[in-house]
Design brief:
It contains six helices and 17 strands. By secondary structure, the protein is of the alpha+beta class. The chain has a single domain, classed as Carbon-nitrogen hydrolase (Nitrilase/N-carbamoyl-D-aminoacid amidohydrolase, 4-Layer Sandwich). Strand 13 and strand 14 form a beta hairpin.
Length: about 270
Amino acid sequence: MTDVAAIQLTSGPNIQANLYEVANYFEEIGKLRSKIVVLPENFALMPENDNDFLKYSEVEGDGPIQNFLKENAIKYKFWIVGGSIPIKTKDRKKVTATTFVYDDKGEVKCRYDKIHLFDVKLPNSNESYNESKVFSHGKKIHVVETPVGITGLSCCYDLRFPELFRMQLKYGVETFILPAAFTEQTGKIHWDTLVKARAIENLCYIVTACQGGYHINGRKTYGHSMIVNPWGQVSAEISSGKGFIYSKINRKQLHSIRKNFPVLNHIRLLKDK
């Protein structure tokens, strides 16, 4: 038995094809008797045009993508962290990039809307992104009890904002989960450093599930899904392309590290007065 698995994909604009591929990985992971499975950002839809996020968006609680996750959580009796799904808002021109956490009975235990939107132009490149054109940003941090302990949720670009992760510590977080679709250009320079930094500075596990490879829309994502322990050591990683990784989460070791290396008790500047 393994505690956590993370799937890496190279998703395209065909939702059914993407879900079919995910279903095959679920079947393989089910044989490992994993307790929780993490999917990448945009796992069900990596469109050629961002307006398709609006076209294929779902109402919270209903839709083919959400139903798929619910059914498979029940079928394989594991928890699923559903990457990101475009969910309708009151503004018909905006959706949220939403992560739903399903328990092994298919019930939604938590919803997180991506807070930090990727509105950038990459240096020395014609590559640019404007997520806020179709996405509305989330406003709240969310922490949920899962089979890998108290779990903090985030998504992709959130990784660059350490205050989000530090704020989650107030709720006793032990594991961070981060679906992502990091660009190739930024990923090859920043990804490894950022992921390990979030683990080390908070003495937490971090589990990332990524897009990795060339997409039909011309985008290239970095991949490198990884599971990192609180000491910054990588216990599992996949570079580019498709596949999945898995690992145990040793909560006893985590709390031993925190006890013997009490850096979190030495925080001064951000302590509540």
